[in-house]
Amino acid sequence: MKTTRTSRLNVKIDKLTRSIELRISGERFDTIIEQIYPSDSKLLDDGAWQFDWTFELRQQQREVYKLTTRENPTIIQGLISIEDLGDHVFVHLIESSEFNKGQQKLFVGVPGNLFAFASKLAFENGYGGTVAFESKTALIPHYQETIGAQLLWGIRMLINTPEALILTRQYFNDFDSENFDGTQKNT
Q1: In whole angstroms, what separates CA 116 from the centre of its chain?
Q2: Is 111 exposed, middle or buried (0-12, 13-18, 19+ CB in 10 A)?
């Protein structure tokens, strides 16, 4: 059964990589992250996703991005739904494609790549890389350990500037943090 409302994040960061890696060989694949729109909903095979991404696409205040490899840009490796809240980026939802879940997943590094992208956008928008999200209670220690997220209150978590910088540089080698000091929104 698909979830139609966004909820607490329930995705594990399997590995922080430099891109995404083929699980069985460790071979790295360069990635592309592009925004998708409601008119792109045909790209989202209904059976391949746990969450209702067409719902996310219809939310005007949110942006949905797909992660693909340069070698095969037609196959979606993962999705992220974010919202610019004026002083930080809020992650509503992250999901790896069905074939990137579980013990036999094809690629590792997909969730980390998507979190790094959210941090990069937060730098580019002048928020010092600050990203917030709500976590499943059981995953709070996981996010603290893997991406350095801090617990704000309840289930709300925050990736602050130092951790966002590490995460962004991990996945985006050409990222120049000198241009994004977090004091003003870039236009």
Answers
A1: 6
A2: buried
pTM (two decimals): 0.88
- In this structure, of 29-33, 39-43, 56-60, 109-113, the range with the lowest mean pLDDT score is 39-43
Which domains does the chain carry? 20-171 (3.40.630.30)
SS3 letters across the chain: CCECCCCCECCCCCCCCCCEEECCCCCEECEEEEEECHHHHHHCCHHHCCECHHHHHHCCCEEEEEEEECCCCCCCCEEEEEEECCCCEEEEEEEECHHHCCCCCCEECHHHHHHHHHHHHHHHCCCCCCEEEEECHHHHHHHHHHHCCEEEECCEEEECHHHHHHHHHHHCCCCCHHHCCCCCCCC
Measured distance CA(128)–CA(170) in Å, rounded:
16
